[in-house]
Amino acid sequence: MTHIVPDQDVLDVFIEESRERLSEMEVGLLDIDRFGESSDPEMLNSVFRSAHSIKAGASLLRIRSVERLAHYLEHALGRVRSGHISADSDLVTAMLEGLDALRDLIDAAPNCTRVDVSDEVLCLREALGRAECRAPSATIDS
């Protein structure tokens, strides 16, 4: 597998912006966890857009591990944003763990260091699956 090393200045900007977005996402997710359905919808939109921006930047720089994890977060947030699932404590906890893992991946990017985040990805996917099962459309009428 070929790893293309991006321009250091571009990578530095990506890392700085991503760290800021991750901090904002953490505040937003904690707000969503605390206030549930009554949290500000714009907060959820902001968290979603931040995940999308990190994913897009990582894609541009070909940092695939960051891109994939950001995609999982974006997907989960999109399902919540569309109203298909609720952001319950289980899902928010998994997303917060995903943010921590994303932060580790971003911090490792300048040195091309491998970071194993498979547990966090699995946790997020499982929490999303449980949320999908609890969604009203997942119930079967008798």
From TrEMBL:
Transport among keywords: no
GO molecular function: protein kinase activity
Name of the protein this chain belongs to: Two-component system, chemotaxis family, sensor kinase CheA
PROSITE patterns linked: HPT
Phosphohistidine sites (modified residues): 52
Domain HPt stretches: 3-109
Species for this entry: Desulfobaculum bizertense DSM 18034
A Pfam family reported for this protein in Swiss-Prot or TrEMBL: Hpt
Biological process, per Gene Ontology: phosphorelay signal transduction system
Sorted UniProt keywords: Kinase, Phosphoprotein, Transferase
Superkingdom to which the source organism belongs: Bacteria
